[in-house]
Fold this protein.
Amino acid sequence: MNPFIHQQQLVTRRQFFGKSATGVGTVALASLLNENLLGAPAVNMNPLDGLPHLPGKAKNVIILWQGGGPSQVDLFQHKPSLEKMRLQELPPSIRGTSRLSSMTAGQSKFPILPAFKPFKQYGKCGRWLSELMSHTGSISDDICYVDSMFTEAVNHAPGVTFFLTGSQIPGRPSIGAWGTYGLGSLSQDLPAFVVMTSSDVDKTCGQLFFDYYWGSGFLPSKYQGVRLRSEGDAVLYLNNPAGVSRELRRSALDDLSALNAHHLQSYGDPEIDSRIAQYEMAYRMQMSVPELTDLSGEKPDVLEMYGPDVQRKGSFAHNCLMARKLVERGVRFVQLMHSGWDQHKNLSYQLEKQCKDTDQPAAALVKDLKQRGMLDDTIVLWVSEFGRTVFVQGDINIAKAHGRDHFGIGYTIWGAGGGFRPGQSIGETDDFAYQITKDPVHVHDMQATLMHMLGINHEKLTYRYQGRDFRLTDVHGRVVPGILA
């Protein structure tokens, strides 16, 4: 006999009447309330008291993480004078005391390498971009470029951790966890914070995506990101085991919830509350996730807009379309982690491939959201941990043995929607794309600005842990007015 069914048959008379009374009462209550009460709510669920702090333009965030460090020299910052200085030594006065990684800090020479491909102007704003980023160029009038980002990090894991959690040391809550902790959820059937990962088709990048990039740190674990897998079931163990019906699972969850509620009342551990919520979310996701991952309902012109790779699960294009579907269904934070930009020795041939993989889908996402009237309240942020050096790393005479090293000063990111001022470029660097000459924007500044767009005062959203009030921006950060629409 099935042990689950056998357990159901052992219900005592007292248990039967107790559960029946509860069921009748629940039905009676439901009949007195709004008939749509049990549907997915359109309002915030469980925001913190007093939030939002101010009128925010955005309610959703999509982070397009470009792992490895895209080269601002080759893609975003038009420096035509560099061509005249090809392979000349970068002046020591320009290098100054800028921090470099151990891979190039000891180099005896620093020959300048201009951009690989020509630049063109795009849009009414006249933004200069590499021809490798033509699709991004087509949405330049909807984008705010930030050309003066800087970070103290010079290596990948600390740099990613810094931007996504506010600290170079793992253990702090991620930006998505902070946002969902403060603002609550917009969906009853899907997690508030969802993560998907992808890589360049050649799998050239050896950097790993660690769970703490979307973790909840010392916040309750219900605020951590839920990763949707690219192979097999989107979420492990989502389906019921053989022989277990949905009704039987519901009954077992009810009993389990009652036990957890008893323990919560006895011990007050917030993780017990998280466990209850996660069991219930998993149950609802059994119905919502299969529908979410089905692309058969998408119009052909929409699929074409995202590019030829959109139907391949695990591709950046597929994940971009999934991001739109997720925010459409009320997911608060979507974090797409894409790797392949760490081009130390393969810049001359891999950069073009990487742009082909990512340029069209990222632009399509912005266009898709705009066409659906969703861009005004959805932030799309194209960002990385740092940029690349203007000088060569490796042997310039060998095509597959040279590239650029990490560089955390004056790199470029862009944002669209949700409060970003469109058609603008913020900040400037010198003629070498090396030192910032105007309007520097620190990692903490960008975090503070994103929070502001969501209606959060970054200084007021705190969590007491080990005797101290922590926040995403630590004790730093300022809102950058020029970025705001």
